[in-house]
Amino acid sequence: MNDLLRYCDQHAADMLRTLETLIRLESPSTDKPAVDRCGVALAGILRAIGGEVGLVRQTDRGDHIRARFTGDERPVLLLGHFDTVWPLGTLQRMPFRRDGDRVYGPGAFDMKAGIAIAVAAIDALRSTSTPHPSVTMLWTTDEEIGSGTSRETIEAEARQSRAVLVLEPALPGGALKTSRKGVGQYDVIVHGVAAHAGLDPGKGASAIHELAAQISSIERLQDLERGISVNAGVISGGTRPNVVAEEARATIDVRAATLADAAAVDAEFRRLQPRRMGTRLTVQGGFERPPLERTAAVVALFRRAAAVAAELGRELREGSAGGGSDGNFTAALGVPTLDGLGAVGDGAHAAHEYVDAAALPWRAALLAGLIAELK
Fold first, then answer.
1. What pLDDT was estimated at residue 44?
2. pLDDT in tens, 137-149
3. Cα 51-53-89 angle, rounded to 5 deg
4. C-alpha to C-alpha distance for 282 and 37, rounded to whole angstroms
């Protein structure tokens, strides 16, 4: 472990160069040409450390990148994404810069630094001749918008892997994520009957009034102690104040900590029935990401990581996150999954997004050591 840490310390500047390259190549999820420009640079970086690199081609999204590194037996999957939430041109107001130990720039924390950590970890393993299992890296291009084109590839790679290590950012202080909530989105659409609000109000059936009643009912599903939250984040409906609304809709964000609770909440949405005569309901959507539960396999993987950290002179903690990642998909398959192995920092999706540069070498050594321990 000390050899790995020493190598990562000695090559910290290489890690920062990788991070700078990726940040300067802006890669908003919905801009395929921009994402692919970043992907070309990333593929070159992976080839330079010995990866067998291939592209998972996409029509409307950026091409996903898969790199394989030979070793013993079944591979360990390193998983993450290089798309960001920041639109093209953000660099003009959030330029790449370093201020002391903080490195700033769009996508630095979430999660281009995680990719730089993974590159450094593999480079350290191979350069120090440390025995390790085969490694597959999968860097996707649509995680920030739901992983619609990447989920199938993610799950296929996970099924072939002994474990999945997710390079999403760490929790505050560097803690790893041993659980994540499942994330769902539902559209509740109410169809009513239009009428003149003054002349013939009794002939109408207000979709807006019905939607208000439905939202009140849905709110009762919330149980924060159990980790269930519901939020009607967007509502719309009606045409004019003097017209009984013919249609109204709400988009509702739902989170749940366990697969059982996610299934129970989903069932409640499917059971919704109209309360007002003349109205009818359509419910669309569901859980896009299942929960990443803190199973025995996840705990065992965390304990191995904590033991590696202890050898590096660090104390490693664990925690949970309210948001989902692609690790939710792999954990739901029963593949041991550990999340939050990426950068220490703050400001995901925020203007102050930054990475703690001083923590990068030990995070790379932690990842390298954990991979070696999984042989």
1. 98
2. 999 999 999 999 9
3. 110
4. 41
The radius of gyration of the chain's CA atoms, rounded to the nearest angstrom, is 23
What distance in Å separates the CA atoms of residue 186 and residue 321, rounded to the nearest whole number? 21
Neighbours of 310 (CB within 10 A): 12
Q: Supply the CATH number for residue 224's domain.
A: 3.30.70.360
Q: Work out how many domains the chain is built from and give that number.
A: 2
How much is the pLDDT for 330?
98
The Cα–Cα gap between 166 and 49 comes to 20
Q: Which two tokens stand for residue 321?
A: 């996150």
Q: Is residue 54 located within the same domain as residue 102? A: yes
Question: And the tokens for 354?
Answer: 């930054």
Q: Is a pLDDT exceeding 90 seen at residue 72?
A: no
Pairing outcome for strands 163-166 and 337-338: parallel
Three-class SS state of 316: coil
**212 is in which domain, residue-wise?**
182-289
282 and 297 share one domain:
no
Q: Could you say which DSSP state residue 182 is in?
A: E
Strand partners, 180: 292, 321
Q: Which two tokens stand for residue 104?
A: 């700033």
Q: What pLDDT digit, counting tens, does each position of 22-68 carry?
A: 999 999 999 999 999 999 999 999 999 999 999 999 999 999 999 99
The whole-model pTM stands at 0.93
